């Protein structure tokens, strides 16, 4: 299926969503959700904005396809929400290595990561910190505009600012401090 068609199938209307936290309590919200694909350095490469009710795993393959058009990469780091055979098969079919955390709700047994894979998987915390930086430093606590176009504009401005910060941290600031 073409990428545009796959993205068109995702709900991008304002919607209700529910999520259980680590204590088992449910929280509800209405709105939209930003799905990001970032490098191991935390630089955003691809983003999709959907209704809040769209599960992360539904955006995995469209995000992968968007990212592969922009950069070359070997490993796909994902958390347990992406633990599905179709996602693993897609990533492997593209010649990349999926590093997907095992979902404890699944009953299948799986081999543990080897030493090299474990080292790459440790970088997943960078991805989590990237989401945290976006939420804590850049985006407002509540987006006070309505409609997918206005919400997308606000969120993508935040993603652009985050990309600039991460590029500065990784490539410009380290070299300028060496020059002094």
Structural description of this entry:
By secondary structure, the chain is of the alpha+beta class. Helix content is 46%, strand content 19%. It is built from six helices and five strands; from the N terminus they run αβββαβαβααα. The strands form two sheets. It has a three-stranded antiparallel beta sheet, with helices on both faces. A two-stranded parallel ribbon has the order 4-5. Strand 2 (26-38) and strand 3 (44-51) form a beta hairpin. The chain is globular, with a radius of gyration of 17 Å. The termini are far apart.
Any chance you could write out the topology, listing elements then pairs?
Elements: H1 3-8, E1 15-20, E2 26-38, E3 44-51, H2 56-68, E4 75-78, H3 85-93, E5 97-100, H4 115-122, H5 124-138, H6 148-179
Parallel strand pairs: 4-5
Antiparallel strand pairs: 1-2, 2-3
